[in-house]
Amino acid sequence: MTFRADAAFAAGMDRADPLAGYRERFHIPRHGNSEEIYLCGNSLGLQPRNTARYLQEELQDWQRLAVKGHFAGRRPWLAYHELFTERSARLVGAGPLEVVNMNTLTVNLHLMMVSFYRPTPQRHKILIEHGAFPSDRYAVTSQIRFHGHDPDASLIELVPRAGCATVDSGDVEAVIAAEAEQLALVLLPGVQYYSGQAFEIARLTRAARAAGAIAGWDLAHATGNLPLQLHDWGVDFAVWCNYKYLNAGPGAVAGCFVHERHARDFDRPRFAGWWGHDKAARFRMQPGFAPMPGAEGWQLSNPPILALAPLLASLEIFDEVGMHALREKSLQLTGFMEFLLQQRLPDAVEILTPQDPARRGCQLSLRLHSGRAPARKVFEQLEQRGVTCDWREPDVIRVAPVPLYNTCGDVYRFAEILEEVLRA
């Protein structure tokens, strides 16, 4: 698409946007007398307007029904997590047997590694990217130590080539091939949180499995951002949070995928809890654990109803729109932002995120060139001007135009304000 660097062009794009009406289904924070420019959905998504209704309905059912709400509420609590199954499966390209919403991301990551990281003296290494999200690195190193291995020997970190901010897929494949005999688990991000690089999930999953390793993915920045086909790609397991692009609120209940080839692998070690037990026999209160088939068999506790309710409001919107329509608009918004930054600030801003649209999602990670104002100061001044984006140490400003509620007008005003701040 050919862009123009003027406000009239942005306004025309917004008038022609078939998804424009969905912005009205979210609460947009205010800055003074107008709406702020919110470009931080990669960190915390905005609140859907229906969220309060769903929460209030559960509070009302609790008030009037108490324990009977497990069976007699508008959405009975006993099977509440099943309300999300079909929609979550469509969102990540999975079958209903393969997905469940439970716990939080790092808890789910630990549960998956309990089952899928089974190191031996010969095969004990885990491959992650250098600069992985800290919680993932903490989880991985603690699992390595828990199994009696030394992270210095068992943890492999992918380092980009000199002068590059991102990792080449060919380099990842080369490392996997070189470490194949000792590699137990490849754990990579769908989208790297710092650089915004989208990894080639299908390609790298094939490489991991060909090497005899488990292919696991942290999709915190990919789910709700990129179209996914986890089943067809052969991913062993994946975990994600629902509070970024999926707008389920701070600390929301997370998601988990386990491929159906593992659905009835009941001898695989796992941590057990009663909500993962065969639901037909769950309330017989028998001592022996009989896991449910599929991802639900990794559940521990009954679902937290008030924490899950906001996800309903968001998933109903995703189900209406579909990821392919969202991706089309996302490419437009991010492409327009890249164009404006290159036109208006070619010597001031470096975009770390790959230029190839297939290798990124909504997010662009920006680094100011040396000789300009300190990046942290620029970030603070953007906030003072009504722009909410995201700061990551030591020097990166992350901006994410989210297609459900951001506009080309938001993108244009952001570039305009950033230019004004830098020139000042």
How do the strands line up in the largest sheet? 4-10-9-8-7-5-6
**Number of β-strand runs:** 15
Question: Strand fraction band?
Answer: 5-15%
The chain-level mean pLDDT equals 96
* Classification by helices and strands: alpha/beta
Radius of gyration: 22 Å
Tally of structural domains: 2
User: Remind me, CATH topology of the largest domain?
Assistant: Aspartate Aminotransferase, domain 2
CATH architecture of the largest domain: 3-Layer(aba) Sandwich
Helix content: 25-40%
Please count the helical segments.
14
Biggest beta sheet summary: 7 strands, mixed
Textual characterization of the structure:
The structure is a single chain. The chain has 2 domains: about 5-35 and about 320-424, Aspartate Aminotransferase, domain 1, CATH 3.90.1150; about 55-320, 3-Layer(aba) Sandwich (Aspartate Aminotransferase, domain 2). The chain is α/β, with parallel strands linked by helices and about 425 residues long. It has helices spanning about 5-15, 50-65, 70, 85-90, 105-115, 135-145, 150-155, 170-180, 200-210, 230-235, 305-320, 325-345, 375-385, 410-424; strands at about 30, 35, 35-40, 100, 125-130, 155-160, 185-190, 215-220, 235-240, 255-260, 350, 365-370, 385-390, 390, 395-400. The chain is built from 14 helices and 15 strands. It is globular. Helix 5 (about 105-115) runs parallel beside helix 6 (about 135-145) and helix 8 (about 170-180) packs parallel to helix 9 (about 200-210). The relative contact order is 0.17. The protein has a 7-stranded mixed sheet with strand order 4-10-9-8-7-5-6, sandwiched between helices. Strands 11-12-15-14 form a 4-stranded antiparallel sheet, with helices on one face. It is about 35% helix and about 15% strand.
